[in-house]
Amino acid sequence: MGTGKSRRMMATLAVVGLAGFLLGGQALAAPAPLPPLTPSPFPVVAPSSLPLPPPTIPDEEFAPIDRPGPELEVPESALDAALRCTANAVDAETEVVLFVPGTTLTPTDDFGWNWFPALDELGRPYCSVTLPNHAMTDTQVSAEYVVHAIRAVHGMSGRRVDVVGHSQGGTEPRFALRFWPDLRPMVDDYVALAATNHGSIAINGVLCTPATGCSESLWQQTSNSHYTQAINSRQETFAGISYTQIYTRTDEFVQPNLDDTGTTSLHTGDGDITNVALQDVCPTGVTSEHLAVGTYDPVAHALAIDALDHDGPAEPGRIDPAVCAQLFMPGVDPVAFPGNYAALVATIAQQLALHPKVAAEPGLRSYTLAD
Questions:
Q1: b vs e for 127-148, b when ≥16 Cβ sit within 10 Å of the residue's Cβ?
Q2: Which of 10, 33, 168, 296 is most open to solvent, judged by the fewest CB atoms within 10 Å of its CB?
Q3: pTM attached to this predicted model
């Protein structure tokens, strides 16, 4: 085995070992099937068939859907510095894609070796927003970065914005749209890749326990957190926006997700919605895990591009079945892939291990509530 391959294998084993450490000796169910190229950096539990729990906070306790959003508290200089765009995003000839990364990651970590080169090859304009502290901070703070980014991209491009978010990055734009209604006419497509829309029982079970604590943003992604209840209060979607919610039934991190009653899927409101599992397109595709959906899975990419290229959300029937035989999405260099993926999981492991942990979810900001 070559030296480079040995280092990558050692990095992977280290991440898996860290995941075991984070479990604190808790018993796990049988592991879900995972692709041999990409062992998960997260504790692996079998896909859950539990239903989503009912909300604990009545809708009427949350702000009305059309109440104007508050002034942003993050300094404008910090918001400006977090936004990066290609040159062709100014006075763009097509909608600009705004990328929002997942927990523990920056846009470069999440999208720099896959989506960015794929859109560069197409000559398509895009922007990305860097969330504070690798998206480990209170998501209500991170949402302000997304609010500013949508406004700025809409202003510079002269067009509505296409939002693409991975995992936590699939929820913050929804929080922004829910509590800053001026953004809704600015957004065209909203594509979420393995989003924690209703929280995840896997996070409750193995990452955010009373004994260990976890980061603020991970608490907010636990099942039925106050944050997710706020996002989904009164209505989940809004008129004029096309929502494509992409998930995998074998997600080891975002659960339950066995069908469209799971955590990623949306159902209420006036938006145009497609909830689609990778297995709806490729029924025998049982190996895709959480990170793959946002970083290299060719089916997820095909569904996202279908949404961006057509009016309305993605239509699974338009996807060429040949994509099921592909290993990587466009933009992924097969030769560089092992190193890129090893770097990705090493970053996740470092953030999970070293970021300060708190004992409970941050309280909801006053603007999210009716009174």
A1: bbbbbbbbbbbbbbbbbbbbbb
A2: 10
A3: 0.89
How is residue 221 written in tokens? 């992604």
Residue pair 256/197 in contact by the 8 Å Cβ criterion: no
Which one, of 318, 278, 314, 313, lies nearest residue 298 by Cα? 278
d(CA 265, CA 314): 14
Q: Which residue has the higher pLDDT, 19 or 282?
A: 282
**CA 12 centroid distance within chain:** 22
DSSP state of 82: T
The answer to which of 116-120, 185-189, 264-268, 282-286 has the lowest mean pLDDT is 282-286
Whole-number Cα distances in Å, 107 to 28, 66, 116, 137, 164: 31, 31, 9, 16, 11
pLDDT in tens, 229-273: 999 999 999 999 999 999 999 898 999 999 999 999 999 999 999
Whether 48 has a pLDDT exceeding 90, the answer reads no
Instruction: Specify burial of residue 108 (Cβ count, 10 A radius: 0-12, 13-18, 19+).
Output: middle
**Distance of alpha carbon 175 from alpha carbon 12, whole angstroms:** 34
Burial code (b: 16+ CB inside 10 Å, e: under 16) for 257-287 equals: bbebebbbbbeebebbbbbbbbbbbbeebeb
